[in-house]
Every structure is written in structure tokens, then in C-alpha cells.
Design goal:
213 residues, seven-stranded parallel beta sheet
Length: 213
């Protein structure tokens, strides 16, 4: 049986078992029918770039993003050894982070260039639906951390925050930070807080419902 002999309904059922990245890699721009089925199947994109190849990233960021950026709901970026300097490359495709108007969730893994991480955090404040931020490892000079945290706390739509970095200087975290009226879930699973630091954390997140430290 030839693949193209399958009905549209069967194609869409098969698509349900394949992640968005693999669907785009296999079927994008194959023919008019495949592009139409993709647009029906993928109403919201969940893109995880932690192990993506440069070729696939060129496909997604160079061809898919420009016409479907508003459909991207969640995104993972990583500067790990498998994808070094991916975050810097991400900004070389001639678009800006504030254009991801549908983005709700973002995970950042080992972002090695502080200016890129800082730029992303600033852009998050302009996204109307953004609610969840997860960061693994922060490459900042110690004196830059309070400003960085201040920018995170200023994202008025953010409800969930997770920072997993055992070297994160919690002693500097709560100095003169603004109050967040949106944060409800906060996680610092690899850090230690003194009682005073914990009290300041609670004071600047008055609507906190869950805390993991």
C-alpha cells in the first residue's frame, strides 16, 4: 500500500502519535496535501530543541517560524554540549522574541551567553499569554544576578518559575526586589535559603501557592 493512498482521517490519526518536530521534519513542504494536513493537525506547536540538528533548526526557524510563529505555545532552547550556542544562533534567523505572541512556556538549558539570556527575559514581558519559565544553570556574574531576577519578577503574566542551579547565589536574590502579583509556583530545588531570605521571598510573592526549595 502506498502512503498517499491513506485517507486524510488516517493521516491525522497517525500524526497524533508523532511529535511536532518530527512531523515538520518528515512532512513539511512535501506536497500541498501534506502541508494542509499539518496545518490541521498542528494547531499549537510544542518545539523542543535540546537535541535538534543544525539542519532541522534551519528548517524550523528559517521556513516554518515566519508563517506560524503565532502558533508556538512552548519552546525549549539549550546550549548544552549537543547544541552549543544554540540560543545565540536562534536570534540569527531575523525574528524577535516578542513576535511569539502565543508563547506560554519556555525552558532554557545552560544558556552560556548572559546577554542572550538577559535579552530573552526582557522580551518575555511583552508576551500576553506567557506563564511558565524554567531555567537550568545561569551564567551570570554574581553582581548581575539581582538585576536579572528583578527582570523575571517584572513579567506580569508569569505564574510558574523554576530555577535549577546549585551555584545560584540565593544570598543576593532578594535584595530590594519588586513584588510579583502573578507568581503562584516557585521552585529553587538546588539552593539553600536562610530564614531571612525565605521571608523576603514570601513577602515579594504574596499570591504564592506552592514553594519548593
Amino acid at each position: 500500500m502506498e502512503l498517499e493512498s491513506l485517507t486524510n482521517e488516517l493521516f491525522l490519526e497517525i500524526f497524533d502519535y508523532v511529535n511536532d518536530l518530527d512531523l515538520l521534519r518528515i512532512f513539511y513542504n512535501l506536497n500541498f496535501r501534506s502541508d494542509r494536513l499539518l496545518s490541521i493537525s498542528i494547531r499549537n506547536f510544542h518545539l523542543h530543541f535540546r537535541s535538534i540538528s543544525k539542519k532541522d533548526m534551519d528548517l524550523i526557524c528559517g521556513h516554518v517560524f515566519p508563517i506560524r510563529m503565532h502558533k508556538i505555545v512552548s519552546l525549549d532552547l539549550s546550549d548544552d554540549d549537543d547544541t552549543p550556542y544554540q540560543s545565540e544562533q536562534f536570534f540569527k534567523y531575523n525574528f524577535r522574541f516578542y513576535e511569539f505572541v502565543g508563547l506560554e512556556r519556555l525552558s532554557l538549558h545552560n544558556i552560556r551567553i548572559p546577554v542572550v539570556l538577559y535579552k530573552i527575559i526582557i522580551y518575555l514581558r511583552s508576551l500576553p499569554h506567557f506563564t511558565r519559565l524554567k531555567i537550568d544553570q545561569i551564567h551570570f556574574d554574581i553582581d548581575e544576578v539581582p538585576v536579572f531576577i528583578e527582570k523575571i519578577w517584572s513579567v506580569s503574566t508569569l505564574t510558574y518559575l523554576s530555577i535549577l542551579d546549585r551555584d545560584f547565589p540565593s544570598c543576593l536574590f532578594m535584595s530590594d526586589i519588586m513584588i510579583s502579583l502573578s507568581l503562584k509556583h516557585v521552585c529553587f530545588m538546588e539552593n539553600y535559603f536562610s530564614i531571612d531570605q525565605l521571608m523576603r521571598l514570601l513577602k515579594c510573592t504574596p499570591y504564592l501557592e506552592k514553594l519548593s526549595i
